[in-house]
Amino acid sequence: MWDSWFGGFTEPSDYANAVMPDVNVRAIIISSIFVIPYLAFLIILPGVREKRLVTLAIFTITALVGAVLAASLYLPGWTGGSAKIVSQLRSHVNERMRARVGVSVGLTTINITLRYEQMVKEDSLSRIDMSQLYYNEKFDISGGITDEFLAVRLRLA
């Protein structure tokens, strides 16, 4: 066990494979920032003597607007769509593939995805395995928005 000064417990480590969670952790954190204080408010609400309904309405609207703004700024997918296409992947080859193109647009990012589904017309000389084809590109568009806000602010100042 102790072959040298630093020889203790040198057998290979057996770590579990890292697996992505099935839930959106960022969405849970953002929603808990607004849900926990709202639940605390609902517990305190019976102690309010006057204007309970007005207080409930104002706090509910404020929390809802804050949650929607935070979610729209920090969560990636604001709106999106997808379509099936038949396309040529490489030039000068007679292969055609059926794929799905997806676009997800957020306030600060655009995400474009291409996922292979099947070959429509195969080339017998092709040596590329298309079954693992998956492109996913994320483009940051927040720089343009920041520049526009800066221009408006300088114009108003």
Q: How would you describe the overall organization of this protein?
A:
The protein is of the alpha+beta class. It has 2 domains: 1-75; 79-156, no CATH class. Helices cover 37% and strands 25% of the residues. It contains 3 helices and 4 strands. It has helices at 25-44, 52-74, 142-156, and strands spanning 79-87, 96-105, 109-121, 134-140. The protein has a 4-stranded antiparallel beta sheet with strand order 1-2-3-4, with no helix packed on it. Helix 1 (25-44) packs antiparallel against helix 2 (52-74). The longest helix has 23 residues, at 52-74. The radius of gyration is 27 Å and the shape is extended. The N and C termini lie far apart (73 Å). The mean pLDDT is 81.
The side-by-side strand order for the widest beta sheet comes to 1-2-3-4
Structural class: alpha+beta
Question: How many strands appear in the DSSP assignment?
Answer: 4
Note poorly predicted spans.
none
Question: Overall mean pLDDT score?
Answer: 81
Kindly state the percentage of residues in helix: 25-40%
Largest pleated sheet: 4 strands, antiparallel
In DSSP terms (H or I, runs of 4 or more residues), the helix count works out at 3
Termini distance? 73 Å
Percent strand: 15-25%
The outline comes out as extended
Order of helices and strands: HHEEEEH
Taking Cα atoms only, what radius of gyration do you get, to the nearest Å?
27 Å
Domains (count): 2
